[in-house]
Specification:
single chain; 150 residues; alpha+beta; 7-stranded antiparallel beta sheet; two-stranded antiparallel sheet; globular
Amino acid sequence: MSAPYDLSITRLIDAPPAAVWRAWTEDTGAWFCPAPWKAEFLDQDLVAGGRSTIVMRGPNGEENRLEGVYLEVVPERRIVSTDAFTAGWMPAGPFMVRIDDFVPEGDGTRYTATARHWTQEARDSHAAMGFEAGWNAATDQLEAIAKRLA
């Protein structure tokens, strides 16, 4: 299902869902944002209602802290998270819901990452930030890790 304010990428990764899942969940900081940026996951409680705290650091000292919760976690199939809440279901200024799907396809995985926004303005802002290039570069990194794990 596509919503009107979605941005999405999809890729057939030449690795089984178990390897893509492991790359996503066990080495998240190594692929989550395009190099030379780095991501540090301070909290990654991969259960519905679990906390997520990420600090993304740029090459010139930039720092972006993201907090949220996981809404749905189905091992080797789907991860849904949002920044609309922080730990304890505290409302926050929402930007998006992130949906990561891992679907078996042949010997590989059809990986789809979707950013679902509340408004057209938020969607357009995310697109202007470089969504397509950035999320594709991060997925290249995810794919490289998954292939090593396969």
